[in-house]
Amino acid sequence: MVEDDPHAKIYPTPHHVAGKDEVYVGRIREDLSSSHGLMIWLVSDNLRKGAALNAVQIAERALEMGVL
């Protein structure tokens, strides 16, 4: 999910994404230290996305592949 409106000061915050599965992106801008670089701000609920949801997604994929 992209939330990026610098003029309105809209970008994702940890409080905003708590309890959600999606990874949010904001503050997208050119990286001045690299000619091909990009700087972004990523926010997610790490307990949901990093642990619980990831385990569910792995199990679903294993079922699709017939290994479970």
Distance from N terminus to C terminus (CA atoms, Å) equals 31 Å
Rg from alpha-carbon coordinates = 16 Å
Note the run of SSEs as H and E: HEEH
Query: Which ranges are low-confidence, i.e. pLDDT below 50, for 5 or more consecutive residues?
Result: none
The average pLDDT value, as a whole number, equals 89
Number of domains: 1
The gross shape turns out to be elongated
Strand order within the widest sheet?
1-2
Number of strands: 2
Percentage of β-strand residues: 15-25%
Q: How is the biggest beta sheet arranged?
A: 2 strands, antiparallel
Share of residues in helices: 25-40%
Please count the helical segments.
Answer: 2
| SSE class | alpha+beta
What does this structure look like?
The chain is an alpha+beta fold and 68 residues long. It has one domain (6-65). The protein is built from two helices and two strands. The chain has a two-stranded antiparallel ribbon with strand order 1-2.
What tags apply to this protein structure?
68 residues, alpha+beta, two-stranded antiparallel sheet
